[in-house]
Design brief:
377 residues, alpha+beta, eight-stranded antiparallel sheet, four-stranded antiparallel sheet, 10 helices, 16 strands, 34% helix
Length: 377
């Protein structure tokens, strides 16, 4: 394990950044495997919002669950263990990505460089909790998408200036008689997007005690924007993010906001897999991404074909006539499944690393969002 000094690699992060949670020296960090009895401290969410609550079609997605309120998930010791692995030199030097949606992300590191993090999300106990909240049995999407990290950092001076600007604006609004208007964020950590995968669990790795903002903004079916408060350290939020447009808002009053995002898909092969790779192709090792994507999709196809073959043989043994229409429907569905898979695996030479377009959005590209992006260029 890296020493304390190497947990924040020199030259990678801004020299004036001071982590909210000071790195713990290697001899003081607990060792050993992930232990669900020790490292999980689950407390159920106060509320689970449904797709209907957000005015979205109830038959959208793979579950009625839209998003949970923040809930306690991991112990403080578990968070320190995760941070030690995430902030290691190997992860920062070899697994860092950026795009027009987010400036600093760490991806694809868990299986090779973060054994504690990897085991945490592969644990049946962790999966059971996430599945219960999601309302459908889930498995991790693929190893590359375990513990995707979003990072926003700033110096103490920047933090103080942002807080002062917020205080000044609040005072101005009160003087003008418009107090109560929400603070709008024109510089989100992650811009409007839908996730590549059906469900995500977002876990906070930073101390948010003094944080202002940091919510997740969701776009409802009627076009309104609602906000779900951000989780505290060790807490998490479960979101059916493939089917809900959302953005991660800036956090004021702190020098860092580090979140861990792990993606999930239904365990059942007969449920839809609407995974798209639009938002992840430009920030991935495509060889690894495509390999793992191909493997799990072919496994789904294999399970479907084997189930269909068993049913076919049973009917034949019982002397039943082949239902041609049902067989053709099955074949058509698998053709669509393979066509979708083929479409998502864009040739490497055609992928522009770091550039994510708006094709992943569910609405017809918001004119306001498009205009902002054009002006920013």
């Amino acid at each position: 394990m890296d020493t304390a000094d190497s947990l924040i690699p020199a030259g990678i992060m801004p020299s004036n950044w001071k982590p909210v949670i000071e790195p713990i020296s290697a001899d003081k960090i607990a060792t050993g495997d992930f232990d669900p009895k020790k490292h999980i401290q689950y407390g159920p969410p106060s509320k689970i919002h449904t797709m209907k609550d957000l005015s979205l079609p109830e038959d959208t997605g793979v579950s009625p669950t839209a998003v949970s309120e923040p809930f306690r998930l991991f112990s403080t010791d578990a968070i320190h263990r995760m941070r030690a692995e995430v902030l290691s030199k190997d992860v920062w030097n070899k697994c860092q990505y950026s795009s027009n949606l987010a400036q600093c992300q760490l991806r694809g590191f868990a299986a090779k460089y973060a054994p504690f993090v990897y085991d945490t999300w592969k644990s049946p106990d962790t999966l059971a909790i996430i599945s219960k909240i999601a309302g459908v049995e889930l498995v991790t999407e693929m190893d590359f998408e375990i513990a995707h990290i979003n990072i926003s950092v700033k110096s103490d001076k920047q933090r103080e200036e942002e807080v002062q600007a917020f205080v000044d604006k609040k005072a101005f609004d009160e003087d003008e008689g418009i107090a109560g208007c929400p603070w709008e964020d024109d510089k989100p950590i992650v811009d409007w997007h839908t996730d590549a995968y059906p469900f995500v669990c977002v876990t906070m790795l930073s101390d948010c005690t003094s944080m202002i903002g940091g919510e997740t903004a969701l776009k409802t079916g009627n076009g309104e924007i609602v906000k779900v408060r951000g989780p505290q350290m060790g807490c998490a939020v479960v979101l059916q993010g493939r089917y809900i447009e959302h953005q991660a808002l800036r956090a004021l009053g702190t020098t860092e906001r580090i979140t861990m995002v792990t993606s999930f898909r239904p365990r059942c092969p007969n449920l839809p897999d609407d995974t798209v790779l639009t938002t992840v192709r430009p920030i991935s090792n495509l060889s690894e991404l495509y390999s793992q994507y191909s493997e799990y999709r072919l496994e789904i196809l294999e399970e479907r074909v084997r189930a269909q073959l068993r049913a076919f043989r049973e009917n034949k043994r019982d002397g039943k006539k082949l239902n041609v229409k049902a067989m053709k429907d099955f074949i058509r569905q698998q053709e669509e499944f393979l066509a979708h898979m083929n479409k998502e695996m864009v040739e490497e030479e055609l992928v522009t690393m770091g550039t994510i377009d708006d094709s992943h959005l569910l609405t017809a590209k918001d004119n306001e969002v498009k205009t902002k992006r054009k002006r920013a260029k």
